[in-house]
Amino acid sequence: MTDQTDTPPRSLANIRVISVFSAFALVALLVYLMVIAEAILLPFVIAIFIVILLDSLAVRITRLSIAGRSLPAWAAMTLSILIFILAFVALGNLIRSNIAAVSAAVPEYEENIRALTDKGLALVGATELPSIRDLINQIDVGKTLGSTVSALASVTGNALTVLFYVVFILLEQVTFGRKVEALFTKTDDRARAREMIGRITKDIQTYIGLKTFVSAITGVLSYIVMALVGVDFAGFWAVLIFILNYIPYVGSLAGVAFPAVLTLVQFTSPIPFVITTVVLTSVQLVVGNAIEPRLMGRSLNLSPLVILLSLAVFGQIWGIVGMVLSMPFMVIAMIVCAGFQATRPIAVVLSATGNVDRKDDAA
Description:
Helix content is 83%, strand content 1%. Helix 2 packs across helix 6. A two-stranded antiparallel ribbon has the order 1-2. The N and C termini lie far apart (53 Å). It has 363 residues and is an all-alpha fold. It contains eleven helices and two strands, in the order H-H-E-E-H-H-H-H-H-H-H-H-H.
């Protein structure tokens, strides 16, 4: 009698243990594939990120009404694609113009760096360091130029690959619903699959859409501050701050550090450095601690420790792009794990509150 009553709980516990270990083995396999298949997976994941951004923008466009009428879905998607293309072209022009401006400003920066170095050496009583020009002359220009050209070619090739992936993913969206219907024959399984896909889509679109809006606010305010101070390449730094703001915690720090360091090179007085650092830090704190929580709330429900660990892991594997993509990855992982009873404990660990059945997602 004792064996019969104890057997079901033990079997259930064994199944859960096996499921948890299987989940960890699957995660290890995915990490391994991310490392060895980076050239294939990274453009595909970036394309998915872009498609989600386009979908989020299209959804918000359809919510707008003119004279009581709103755009159909296909027109909203077309408009969102045009907006994305215009933004991409503008970003390319901005980068190209800033490269030319940096080349023209290098002599002035060199003199300012030289002056700062001399002051620092005078304070510590050290001997003179070699000039920046002497250090540049020691660089193998041919090798450096070759590696730069190879990097640019790689970026161009990846951009074309991402573009092809985006096109085919958009085409695949048309038949994706019918494939889900055909994949699950049972009504309950089909309903659960629809619910899981809907929740993933809603959470990721909410995160990317609101994060883009918040990042745009941060970028615009930062541009105004840097333009008033007179920081060179204020538009470029504002775009960089906009991109880095997608990275939790670390991105805000880097977004302040880069333009602040430039002020030390650009100006001989420390006052612009102090103003830029203090005001940009204030902008990051106000937006990050006041505006963003009000808009996003706790809709993602991810543990801060999990966010930091995912930033470290994805950053080590895929660099800055991996850090940007880490949050959507973890949201998807938590939702999928919460959808199955065997992997539910993993979702609880990943969550911030332990409640993985919340119904108050941000709209």
